[in-house]
Specification:
Length: 171
């Protein structure tokens, strides 16, 4: 499991490098770009209320999807696929990969904001057939972290409702 977590982390990092932080980002980050990113992260975190700071710190890390409903219908990831979501202080990326081949079938990422317990994603990059549905959109969710579980409920820009449970990845 630890080896698999390292592989997934590497895949996330590679996707982030190749996709960039947004469509205008260079593949290789310059020191100035890195400093700008750090400054933006600091500004966003400085604006957080105490509740938002606590939620943000609890969200940071790698999560495994263990349950998903779309419009109330179970759409949990099949056993041969795994879906991970990696949260940083200001950004996120999720990806699904085949457990046997390791091939990534879909992924998307971008930035997020918090307002109370409302977590809003702005989709800025991605791959796969599902990316075209959510490309350049924003989605709003309520977020609650209880121990190692993240309850994520809301709706996509196209009106579909999403009800997910994520579990913190363990080494």
């Amino acid at each position: 499991m630890f080896k698999r977590s390292i592989c997934i982390t590497c895949a996330v990092l590679l996707l982030t490098m190749f996709c960039g932080c947004n469509k205008n980002a260079a593949v290789k980050s310059s020191p100035a770009a890195e400093e700008s990113r750090k400054a933006i992260a600091g500004i966003m975190q400085a604006k957080d209320t105490k509740k938002e700071k606590q939620l943000r710190s609890r969200l940071i890390g790698t999560w495994v999807n263990i349950s998903m409903k779309v419009d109330g219908i179970d759409r949990s990831t099949p056993r041969d696929l795994a879906t991970y979501k990696h949260i940083t202080p200001v950004g996120f990326i999720w990806l699904s990969h085949d457990r046997i081949t390791g091939r990534i079938s879909r992924a998307a990422g971008g930035t997020y904001t918090l307002s109370g317990n409302v977590y809003k994603e702005k989709i800025e990059y991605g791959i796969g057939y599902q990316y075209e549905v959510i490309r350049n959109s924003q989605a709003s969710f309520t977020a609650a972290v209880d121990g190692d579980k993240w309850y994520h409920r809301g709706s996509l820009a196209n009106g579909q409702t999403i009800d997910e449970i994520w579990e913190r990845a363990k080494p």
